[in-house]
Design brief:
The complex is a heterodimer of chains A (295) and B (412).
Chain A: E1 3-4, E2 7-8, H1 9-40, H2 47-65, H3 69-90, H4 100-122, E3 138-140, E4 145-147, H5 148-170, H6 172-182, H7 184-189, H8 194-216, H9 226-241, H10 246-266, H11 274-285
Antiparallel strand pairs in A: 1-2, 3-4
Helix pairs in contact in A: 1-5, 1-8, 1-9, 1-10, 2-3, 2-4, 2-8, 2-9, 3-8, 5-6, 9-10, 9-11
Chain B: H1 3-30, E1 38-44, H2 55-69, E2 72-73, E3 76-84, H3 89-103, E4 105-110, H4 114-127, E5 130-133, E6 150-152, H5 157-170, E7 175-181, H6 184-199, E8 203-210, H7 218-226, E9 231-235, H8 238-250, H9 253-256, E10 258-261, H10 266-272, H11 274-277, E11 281-284, H12 292-305, H13 311-330, H14 335-344, E12 356-357, E13 363-364, E14 367-372, E15 385-391, H15 393-396, H16 406-411
Parallel strand pairs in B: 1-3, 1-4, 4-5, 5-6, 7-8, 7-9, 9-10
Antiparallel strand pairs in B: 2-3, 11-14, 12-13, 14-15
The chains are: A mainly alpha (295), B alpha/beta (412).
């Protein structure tokens, strides 16, 4: 028995491993979205553009200033975070009292503008970002060749995901944050600067997207549309996991990566659709998502 | 003293002026335009996935041709109009219809994206206006969907498969596995190349079809890896090809297998970087660093666009120039006359030598097999290709005997 439905087990193992790699990308991106939605109640459509920006900033740092990957890993998210602060301070904050729809429209518009600007400046084909030398080569797992860089991606995103979850759910800062969303007036009365906290939360969510962008730069093409291509899937992940649920988005991201990987073996033509089929089923059975709370 | 010489000079001047007037008058009388100016259109994807492939670069190339021609036809101005079809055949049709009916555009160029090309060439036939397709690759344009008013200038899926397929099988790469974009273009590229591989004595072990803009290709590459085929053919385009190649390098596929990109352009190689793209085989109709003529033209283009041109941009220039010369030579912008002239006159410029536009609209010219240079071999920015072989036009493109073009079949 070394085949399942005509697919060799070796091949299947390979696909599952790759699914895990892609899943950790989904997890990292949907985490940022979940944090922003959970804390600010904003559906951040600019997330894909911020992710693209993270990749572009690290490309620019390397291209123009000769700053390598490791520094980019810290600097790019910072730059994107600052852009996040500007967006939040100047535009987003006026919309908190209004319906979700306004935040969605605003961030969607911002995404279009950012993408348009990069497209104007750098064209559509994208720019190459060389893999750092440390990551050349890979491990032979017996059933597949695992590039070192992909293993690093899984490791880095799991650490960041779990770290974020820990900070928000288990620390005092996280408790302030959650309380601030629940009842801003009361928390402010206790002397906590809620508006600042909200700004920083959005910046943090943006920085997470930027971080994912840096991770993506060496393996995918750094191009202005890279965010637009992935954002829809990531939204599906967040909806399936339950809007605003942090652990939910991490677990769903990983799980959907695996399911997508399996689809690529059994029926590759449907691999870009399978996530949405699952989304429809989940919404029919549990409208609040797998890990979401009914309101 | 100098009275006579002054008179002589005046007479001379008068004679010259008269001669000029006569020759100008005859030039004016020689040709006639339907409108007050000669308008040509450049229709392309200006902002989407193919914008670097055609897009603003194609418009610049067309304008360059008009400027080099002198900017005037029979004393009247030549105008270039352009539009973004967003890769949507319905938008392309609407724009073209407006151009033909309202604006008096006599010919349209570029028309990339096979869906757009099929729609626009049909419209050209209906309105009796010239449509020149450069960027689109479907071979249907000179087969079942060929039009008497349309010319397919740059390349097609048959030529791409022919050049890469034959060369690689002869080189020992006789077992193939395809990674194919799951739409009409990918399917026809896979089929046409597969046929060539089989006809040359190789075999096709299998294929995997991926959705357009698949994003991550590692899974498909793993399947290609387990097929054990010597050659993995990439029957996709643009960003999909670029991402496939990146992942292939990363997953160590290139250690035991070779990649053949079936549709890959200079701009894609630039986007990949030589480190990743090195060693890759590809087919092109034109490359900027071929000879003094191509380099000189590229310099002019680069001055305007700040980028190196790809083969599509060069072919737009060549096609527009060939059209303008045909209008001038036939003394009219009447479509039937001009198309006949274009087909009768060989193309000899920096794009093609002895190019011939056949009865079915196929522009037959030499095609080239290139291999991407190693980073150490590249001497200057943009120095990317090693020439591996030249394939004569008649061997690269589908032969007239096999053409299913109805207008041609009637004649045979």
């Amino acid at each position: 028995m070394n085949e399942i439905f005509g697919v060799p087990i070796q091949a299947l193992m390979g696909q599952l491993t790759i699914g895990l790699v892609n899943g950790s990308f989904y997890a990292l991106l949907s985490l940022g979205l979940a944090v922003i939605f959970g804390m600010l109640n904003v559906v951040n459509f600019a997330h894909g553009a911020l992710y693209m920006m993270g990749a572009f900033v690290s490309w620019m740092l390397l291209q123009y200033l000769g700053i390598n990957y490791w520094f980019s890993l810290v600097l790019s998210p910072l730059v994107v975070g600052v852009v996040g602060i500007v967006i939040e301070k100047t535009m987003l904050r006026w919309l908190y009292q209004l319906d979700h729809l306004y935040g969605l429209l605003l961030t969607f518009g911002i995404a279009l503008i950012i993408e348009g600007a990069f497209r104007e400046g750098y064209g559509i084909s994208g720019q190459p970002y060389e893999l750092p030398d440390v990551f050349r080569g890979g491990f032979d797992l017996g059933f597949m060749f695992m590039p070192k860089y992909r293993a690093w991606v899984v490791l880095a995103s799991l650490v960041v995901c779990l770290g974020t979850w820990y900070v928000i759910e288990k620390t005092r800062l996280g408790a302030y944050l959650r309380a601030g969303t629940e009842n801003p007036k009361l928390v402010q009365a206790f002397g906590v600067n809620v508006p600042l906290m909200v700004t920083l939360t959005y910046a943090f969510g943006a920085a997470l997207a930027g971080f994912a962008g840096v991770l993506a730069a060496p393996i995918y093409q750094v191009n202005p549309l890279m965010g637009a291509n992935i954002i829809i899937i990531v939204f599906a992940v967040v909806v399936i996991g339950g809007m605003g649920s942090i652990l939910g988005s991490i677990l769903t991201g990983l799980a959907l990566g695996l399911i997508e990987g399996l689809t690529k073996v059994f029926y590759p033509e449907a691999s870009s659709t399978v996530v949405f089929i699952i989304m429809v089923i989940v919404l029919l059975i549990r409208p609040a998502g797998l890990f979401g709370r009914e309101q | 003293m100098n009275q006579p010489s002054k008179t002589k000079r005046t007479i001379l001047a008068a004679v010259i002026a008269a001669a000029c007037a006569v020759s100008m008058g005859s030039a004016l009388a020689q040709g006639k335009l339907t409108k007050d100016s000669l308008k040509i259109g450049v229709l392309s994807d200006m902002s989407g996935v193919y914008a670097d492939y055609g897009g603003p670069g194609a418009v610049a190339a067309a304008k360059l041709a008009v400027d080099d021609f002198g900017g005037k036809m029979f004393g009247k101005p030549i105008e270039v109009v352009s539009a973004d079809h967003q890769n949507k055949p319905d938008i392309a049709k609407n724009v073209t219809l407006q151009w033909f009916d309202r604006d008096g555009v006599m010919a349209t160029f570029e028309n990339l994206n096979s869906g757009v090309a099929l729609a626009v060439t049909a419209l050209g036939k209906e309105k009796n206006r010239l449509t020149v397709v450069t960027g689109a690759a479907t071979a249907r344009l000179t087969n079942d969907a060929c039009q008497p008013t349309s010319i397919h200038y740059l390349m097609d899926t048959i030529a791409l498969g022919n050049v890469v397929g034959k060369a690689i099988v002869k080189d020992g790469g006789d077992s193939w596995f395809f990674i194919t974009a799951d739409y009409a273009f990918g399917h026809s590229l896979e089929k046409d190349t597969g046929d060539v591989v089989k006809a040359t004595g190789g075999k096709v072990l299998g294929a995997v079809r991926h959705p357009l803009n698949a994003g991550d290709f590692s899974s498909f590459l793993l399947q290609a890896q387990s097929s054990k085929a010597k050659i993995v053919g990439l029957a996709n385009a643009g960003g999909d090809t670029v991402n496939s190649i990146k992942s292939a390098a990363e997953f160590g596929l290139t250690k035991n297998q070779s990649l053949a990109a079936l549709l890959m352009l200079y701009t894609d190689v630039h986007a990949l970087g030589l480190n990743t793209a090195q060693g890759l085989y590809l087919t092109e109709a034109w490359y900027w660093d071929t000879n003094a003529e191509t380099r000189a033209w590229s310099k002019k283009y680069e001055d305007r666009m700040k980028k190196k041109p790809n083969s599509n941009h060069a072919s737009v220039y060549s096609a527009v120039m060939h059209y303008l010369k045909a209008v001038q030579a036939s003394g009219t912008d009447d479509t039937t006359t001009v198309v006949k002239k274009m087909k009768d006159t060989p193309v000899n410029d920096m794009f093609a030598k002895n190019g011939k536009i056949r009865e079915d609209g196929r522009h037959v010219h030499d095609m080239y097999l290139y291999q991407v240079k190693k980073p150490s071999e590249s001497k200057a920015p943009g120095d990317y290709y090693n020439l591996k072989g030249t394939v004569k036009g008649e061997d690269a493109f589908q032969s007239m005997e096999k053409s299913q073009c109805p207008q041609f079949m009637k004649k045979a």
